[in-house]
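Dear colleague,

Thank you for sharing your sequence with our group. We've completed the structure prediction you requested, and as agreed, I am returning the results in plain text so they can be pasted directly into your records. Please verify that the sequence below matches your submission; if there's any discrepancy, let me know and we will rerun it promptly.
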Amino acid sequence: MTVHRVAVLALDGVLPLDLAIPAQVFHVRPQTHYEMTLCALGPKVATSAGFELAAEGGIEELRAADTVIVPGYDPIHETPEAAVELLAEARERGRRVVSICTGAFALAAAGVLDGLHATTHWEYIDEFEREYPSVRVDRDVLYVDEGDVLTSAGVCCGIDLCLHIVRRDLGAAVANRIARGLVAAPHREGGQAQYVPAPLAEAGDASLSATREWALQRLDESLSIRLLARHAEMSQRTFLRRFAEETGTTPLQWLLNARLSKARELLETTDHSVDRVARDCGLGTPANLRLHFRRALGTTPTAYRRAFTS
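Please find the predicted structure tokens below.
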């Protein structure tokens, strides 16, 4: 595969976790084509946690990158002019530009987000909207994909966005392998809420993660709300409320996303017929699989398989 160069631009005050996410996802692996470089405007960069990092790359590596990622930083109003110019230049040259968390402030300052949909950390989203009125702010999402410009919401949503990029570039099978290595949750679609104001669990309450895992092992079966609630040992009403609190989506939408993810992996890694893929992922018929593929991905199962097995 042709090497795809990823530059992670760490600005002073970079949030260590925001920086670690793309570093972990895009480091060199046998099954990927990424080459990741930590870049800064100087030889060292201060983090928000008080320690410094030595940067491997600088301006030249940024200019040579195919994808530039800006992790969150603090304070958000101290974006260096050099960084603003470099990000604007990268976009003008058709490079993919990505932000995690408050990194969106740097992209907006560079004009990269003008006229586009974007998001950032929920705590700063009001300020972001006031400061950059030309940006169409999406408040209740994990990430926004505008083609070659992508933004994620707060901190750990960067995991969802980076895995989404891998899925776009290399397919669901590779992204799922990386997610398993990270012990990350199954793929979350970008349209889910970034912040769910759920109360703390009371003594005796249990997460629904066991029920979600149980369902993932049975996607080829008919899974109703009644069955899921029974597994969770809850009433259907309580189950629906708790599921929304934990995931920011409904059980049926979550199941559909999980089934599409399984279908994508089967299309990439097996030569099973479309009819069998539809049955094995729980979507029933080829017509139903094609319908949901078209709605979610804008393509057909056959065209998807051709693209990721060529």
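Summary note from our side: Confidence is low (pLDDT under 50) at residues 191-205.

Kind regards,
the structure core
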